[in-house]
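quick one before i forget lol
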Amino acid sequence: MTDARFVHVDSVPMPEGTYAEWIESRDGAKIRVLRFGGSGERGTALVIPGWAEPAEKYGEVALDLIDRGFDVTCIDPRGQGLSQRLTDDDPRGRIDDMSKHVDDVDAVVEHLGAERLTIVTHSMGGLVGLSWLARGGKAEAAMLSAPATRIYSSPVMRGVIRGACGALIALGMGDQPARGANNAMTFEGNTLTSDIGRHAILRDLLIADEGLALPRPTFHFVEAMHKAQAALQKPGVIDGIDVPVLIVSARADTWVDATHHDALAAHHPQKFELVKVEGALHELFMEQDQYRDQFWDAFDRFADRYVPKVAVSAEDDSANV
């Protein structure tokens, strides 16, 4: 695989030695990953971001995972970051089938060839990660921050949105924006994080490279999300997950329906462990330390049970540098 461009900004935390590379997905799409490095005492951690998040935004998360003994890679989901967009001359991040994201995870996992793999996700990445696991993906554990297992808490609202999306797509309006912008450039009024410093990470990346930017989610995207969420709820689908899964739920979340995390844990107690972070907004990784630390405390307890450290040889360690 060839080297890819990596956006470095002094104000954005980043492990030393980080580099980017291209991976070809099964349909030929070019998917960019950031290789952050790490000792690999706990194996490899594959980070799957949420919607509109470039991999560079996860530099601080990578540092946290490296401190915990992982060798860390982060994928740029198809259609965002610097991964392949709709076409070379069309920067829209339109996705009309979330299975493409799942295929891309397959390609990255195959490329990494990790003997020990842990999945770490946020929001849309949680939906992708769960879909990959339900399809037979193998890992030692999965840790999910505010996974987008359901958007809109009201069943009436979900029905209205699905109907509206279908009608608008049929009228050729699938690429129109479906939700008002949550301005990444301005802290005031944002509904993602209460931490002004971490909010600035994405802002600074977008200022440094406008190629990382995405328009608002489209009706195509919203419909694809609903279809993927509904697919997970089909009888027997979640039974296909044989990996211990930690869900850390942000309870002041206005983007994802946090009560659905409760339902998942209640209906599948053998599959999911749930930890609630009261008062946290959607982006737990970008939240204030008082909330963010609760995620990592839960992560550490879970990792100690399911992803213990194993000493790596000098030869193995050099391969992860």
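fyi The two ends are 17 Å apart (CA to CA).
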